[in-house]
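URGENT: need a sanity check before tomorrow's submission.

F., can you look over the DUF1232 domain-containing protein record below? I want to be sure the sequence and structure line up before it goes out.
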Amino acid sequence: MATPFDETLAFDGETDGAQENERRVRDGFWRKLGTGASRLPFAEEATAAYYCALDHDTPSRVRVALFGALAYFLLPMDAVPDLFPALGFTDDAAVIAATLNLLAGHITPAHREAARSALDRIRCR
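Structure tokens as predicted:
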């Protein structure tokens, strides 16, 4: 089922390269969730942040911060590599939590519902 967040959009004044980066984040985000990350305790928050970042009504500065946090989540080798069981995602969770604390007012019930629906679909596979 399509959501209002499915269409590609760009930040104000962006070039084609920025649209390519958005596509990479979209592809990488769903791939990461499909490999088991959808069961992480912060998966719903990360997915709600993802939808917020794609929302036309979210200010550009907020979208930039959210995409930055999500990009960190996608990096396989970061401060604590995701390969370490139990510890590998703690830094990712901290970055997402800190970003969401700063920007929580921009994540709407629609973003959270889209996140729950997407995760339910992934988890049922």
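My own read: The chain is about 60% helix and 0% strand. The CA atoms of residues 34 and 122 lie 7 Å apart. If you see anything odd, call me.
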